[in-house]
Amino acid sequence: MLKLSKSTVFNIIRRFKKTNSAETKQRPGCPRTFSELEERWIVRQAHINPKTSAVKLTLKCKSKFRKSVNPEIVRNVFKKHKYYGRVPRRKPYISKANRKARLAFAKMYVKQSTEFWKNVIFVDESKYNIFGLDGKQEGWHTPNTALHIKNLRPTVKYGGANQLVWDCMASSGVGNLDFIDGTMNKYVYLVTFSSEI
């Protein structure tokens, strides 16, 4: 009728006689490893230094809180507070002094008139690999197919060749694309720039 075993019914009756309630008490479960205060300290360490590892923080927790834990527990604390491990985005390093100098330079020219910018030439150069990329590449494949031709990243000795290109731009239009052989030093730069003016 109830689709319950005899032992389950017996336990419910016994519980009701003891506690005057048929509800199951909430089980205590695994006790928490860190207190709220300790968790806030762990999160603060990641905020101060985002590149710190869970392993290093585990060792710090061991010495500070006298608690022997594994790195996975520290990672769970981060997840609880919405901190997730990610690969940092790559950007060219700019020192604090350089950032200040760049900002000062930008502020100096931000209010210049259109006539002023008509007399300015913008130049840039860039390197292009003829074979492959410099950065890390990822791909998807099924188990035991890592050495299939389509899953390989082909390489050449000494990294393959690359080509340096240079160009300029002004209010009057875009200059010609110059292909630079070898290293661009100040002499090559002056010759290239002079040919575009």
From TrEMBL:
GO terms, molecular function: DNA binding
UniProt protein name: Transposable element Tcb1 transposase
GO cellular component: nucleus
Annotated Transposase Tc1-like domain residues: 40-110
SUPFAM superfamilies: Homeodomain-like
InterPro entries with a match to the protein in the record: Homeodomain-like_sf (IPR009057), RNaseH_sf (IPR036397), Transposase_5 (IPR052338), Transposase_Tc1-like (IPR002492)
GO biological process annotation, one example: DNA integration
Species, as recorded: Araneus ventricosus
Compartmental location: Nucleus
Superkingdom in the source lineage: Eukaryota
